[in-house]
Specification:
single chain; about 210 residues; alpha+beta
């Protein structure tokens, strides 16, 4: 029985990442098609619609916008449209937050030593985080100065985290990419690399019953 259990464990470790990934991709595509497909069917005759057309048109539209934004005039028009959104109640809060998040992600690799650890007061413990702000121009007075940085510390196994305003002198940079740091924090330190081979997964498992007896 132990040998059978060990063989099953190897098979599970081999297929589980692929199955979960493919299922999530399938769920995302189906969900997007349900939303976008219904919009497309309002514009074109129902007989012209085929499953997947909504997602295909959305991808083509996003690509077209990316191409058009290379032109100065259209880029200025888009910025003008954004300014209108940022003046609307409720809309400006949601749009501004999403805009800041996408801007942070797009600049992630440009910020250099932005992965740091922050000490917890009165203890030897440290918290892993990502520097999200070093400059404080345009921010409410009293939040920070030239000696302060903002550090986002994600929670493990859930969506959420804390923004710490810490003196730059107390944080210690970590030689780790933002992607690896986020993975490390979200998985409570269980994952440290972008990927692991099947052999490594088997070695990291608590034990292999198939090797016993």
């Amino acid at each position: 029985m132990r040998r059978i259990g060990g063989i099953f464990l190897k098979g599970l470790l081999a297929v589980l990442p692929a199955v979960v990934t493919l299922y999530l991709l399938y769920w995302l595509i189906i969900t997007a098609e349900r939303a976008l497909g219904s919009i497309v069917q309002l514009v074109i005759p129902e007989t012209w619609y085929h499953p997947g057309l909504g997602v295909a048109l959305a991808v083509a539209g996003i690509f077209a916008i990316g191409v058009l934004l290379n032109f100065y005039l259209l880029r200025r028009l888009w910025e003008w449209f954004e300014q209108i959104l940022l003046q609307l109640p409720v809309v400006k809060t949601i749009y501004g937050a999403v805009q800041d998040l996408t801007g942070f992600v797009s600049r992630a690799e440009e910020l250099g030593d932005q992965v740091v650890t922050v000490p917890l007061p009165g203890s030897d413990y440290r918290v892993l985080g990502v520097v999200t702000r070093r400059q404080w121009e345009g921010v409410a007075e009293g939040l920070g100065d030239e000696h302060t940085i903002a550090v986002y510390t994600p929670m493990s196994y859930q969506v959420g985290g804390y923004t710490l305003l810490a003196p730059a002198s107390v944080v210690e940079p970590v030689d780790m990419s933002v992607e690896d740091a986020m993975r490390f924090a979200v998985t409570a330190g269980m994952s440290t690399r972008k990927s692991a081979s099947l052999d490594e997964l088997l070695e990291d498992s608590a034990h292999d019953p198939g090797r016993e007896g």
